[in-house]
Amino acid sequence: MTRQMVMVGFLQAQNCTNYPFSWRHPEARVDATSPEYYQEIARVLEAGKFQVAFFDDRLAMPDRYGGDHTHTVENGIRCVKMDPLPVLMMMASATQHLGLGATCSTTYYEPFHIARMFATMDLMTKGRAAWNVVTSVNDGEAMNMGRDSAMAHDLRYDRADEFMEVVLGHWDTWEDGALLVDKESKRFADAAKVHRLDHAGPFFRSRGPFTVPRSQQGHPVIIQAGQSGRGRDFAARWGEVIFSTASNIAVGKASYTDLKAKTTAAGRNPDYMTICIPVLTVVAETRSEAEDKMALLETLTLEVDELSLLAEGLNVDFATKDLDAPMTREEIDGISGFQGLRDQVVRDSGKSNPSLRDFLRHSKRGRPEGAIVGGPKEVTDRLEELFVERVCDGFVVAASHIPGGYADFVRYVIPELQKRGLFHQDYKGLTLRENLGLPRPEIGVWKT
């Protein structure tokens, strides 16, 4: 079969998209706390045949910069953060095929809790659920959960490995065909096909039996986005849809090849790992119109957006530091947040001791810099290049504002991709695994 792209809509259940300036856009909806807001997004993405609507999430608002939340609230920098699972269920009610993914942390939940939530969501959406596995990096999240600071980086991943074993173990304890619901024989289920897990490890104990049968797709799809060395090992072991980064084609190709090789080394089929990279497209009927749209976006950004999100991502308060002073080796090594982002900035800046301004420039947090701007042909040409060069298998599409950012992509880019045979004309099935080309998981395969 001809290789085709996967499209993921990047969402947040908050007052803005992943770009904090988005709520300031003159055409942006202002009812981000309403069900109708997310149902419109769902309908737009399903009309564009997107495989997945995915919700990023954190358990705290960005308040690391200056150690205060005032700037966050006043400027609307991701200050509203709702639970994404109920929001996804509202989106599920407005769609039939769109996959629905939500972020939940292995650091602040229990495995049985996660297993039950997502297995239930999978049944309620008839096999369209996905779980984005994160380990949580911010001290603000830790303090909201009764702790003083975030767990050490590698320890978080060691714990997350066992967390995955417990969740997948519970999902495997109901065999297919366990449910009978036979009124004549008065047998509800076959007890021989329902098992206890009885897990006991260094981080978790979980007995079972699990309380949710397997869904139409077996169990939810696993999404992962770890970018540090340890995070990429984790993604290779467990992830089915991987969110990666690519600052240029050479870096992206090397990252893609490395992730596929790590997956093979982990004993998994690399064809069943879909690697997607983030893109922001600013597209219109003509390039000139798209450039006008981009010019408007650039007027909406504030420096405080960038500083706040960078402090949150790195888990460092640098409010009193000179932006142009090189960071010391101790400061670089002491970054406890997104270590993959740290390593990217060091690499792309060419400096072993980049300044905070270098971090702002190369991380692009909070800014529309790096957007693909143009008419349908120009934008599609760029996406095709990245796809054909094996930088990725698909894209995590960000929106400059709601609903226009997605609506423009669906109106202008999707038809051009379909015309070139790069994107499917319609959904292949009803479950997310069918639409991603993933097999229905057999029980216990992850243990091999």
Task: Describe the protein's architecture and organization.
The chain has 448 residues and is of the alpha/beta class. The chain folds into 2 domains: 6-287 and 370-447, Luciferase-like domain (TIM Barrel), CATH 3.20.20.30; 302-365, no CATH class. It has 16 helices and 13 strands. The chain has helices at 35-47, 70-75, 84-92, 111-124, 139-144, 153-171, 229-238, 249-265, 287-300, 303-314, 329-333, 339-349, 356-363, 376-388, 404-419, 432-436, and strands at 6-12, 52-56, 99-105, 129-134, 179-182, 187-189, 199-200, 205-206, 221-224, 241-243, 274-283, 372-374, 394-398. The chain has an 8-stranded parallel barrel, surrounded by 6 helices. The protein has a two-stranded antiparallel sheet with strand order 5-6. Strands 7-8 form a two-stranded antiparallel ribbon. α7 links the parallel β9 (221-224) and β10. α7 (229-238) crosses α8, α12 (339-349) packs across α13 and α14 packs across α15. The radius of gyration is 22 Å and the shape is globular. The relative contact order is 0.16. GO terms for molecular function: monooxygenase activity; oxidoreductase activity, acting on paired donors, with incorporation or reduction of molecular oxygen. InterPro entries: Diverse_substr_monoxygenases, Luciferase-like_dom, Luciferase-like_sf, NTA_MOA.
Kindly state the number of beta strands: 13
CATH architectural arrangement of the largest domain? Alpha-Beta Barrel
Can you say what the CATH homologous superfamily of the largest domain is? Luciferase-like domain
State the low-pLDDT regions, or none. none
Apparent shape: globular
Biggest sheet details = 8 strands, parallel, barrel
